[in-house]
Design a protein that fits this description.
Length: 236
């Protein structure tokens, strides 16, 4: 039996897209105290929106929400130094959120591919996947940096900035290639290559197909084919 049941109604990606973008805008101002708390809450809210989008068995729903809440609490405790900043706690938080973002990418892609027709909300779901890939790879880079502080040419995670790792991730995803931060270790290099490949292929192929299918559907609605009633000719 599939533990992931079909959604009662098609998922709506407006809120997920909005929260994902808002967190990007908030992070530059989250430099301690309530700013860090807001950034952590928005990250937890993204994971909760992912969970809520699909109907799960009661036990699985409670279990996943509990895991997400534990990750949120650990993030808060580390932010306010209520726990020692150890690799174990950092990797636990990063692992929990990596699970949610990777699950979100797979679930949204599955829903989009199974959609009977492409709507504007389907396209928004595709945009959400692209943004979530940036967040997901930022978590991967954070894990690599936690395990090896010399994996990159400069520090990705600092006590005063949550933006550098996201900045690096989206620079690679969009293949801007500024070169101010570069991978040094083999693990960091491989993950950078994979993200750059996805950043090239996903918008060029998948998003292009979504947008073209959406425009074709809109055009078919605006210009419905004329219905011709063929009359039977009587032979005299």
């Amino acid at each position: 039996m599939d533990i992931f049941r079909k959604a009662a109604s098609p998922p709506q990606y407006n809120q997920l897209l909005a929260v994902t973008v808002v967190r990007l805008l908030v992070i530059p101002f989250a430099d301690g105290g309530w700013g860090d708390l807001l950034a952590s809450f928005l990250l937890f809210h993204i994971s909760f929106l992912i969970i809520r989008s699909y109907r799960l068995s009661r036990l699985l729903f409670v279990l996943i929400v509990a895991i997400s809440f534990i990750g949120f609490l650990l993030d808060i405790f580390l932010t306010f130094s209520w726990l020692p900043t150890s690799s174990f706690f950092l990797l636990t938080v990063q692992g929990i959120y990596s699970f949610f973002f990777s699950s979100a990418v797979l679930l949204i892609l599955k829903n989009i591919l199974q959609a009977s027709r492409v709507t504007s909300d389907t396209v928004k779901g595709g945009v959400c996947v692209y943004l979530l890939l940036g967040y997901l790879w930022a978590l991967f880079y954070s894990i690599i940096y936690t395990l090896n502080a010399n994996a990159f040419s400069s520090a990705l995670v600092t006590e005063t900035s949550r933006l550098r790792v996201l900045y690096f991730s989206f620079v690679i995803l969009t293949t801007l290639g500024f070169g101010d931060i570069t991978p040094v270790s083999e693990a960091a290099s491989v993950m950078t290559i994979l993200e750059a490949l996805i950043g090239q292929v996903y918008p060029a192929v998948f998003m292009a197909l979504l947008v073209s299918s959406y425009l074709a559907h809109r055009e078919s609605q605006d210009n419905p084919p004329s219905i011709r009633n063929d009359s039977t000719l009587e032979q005299l």
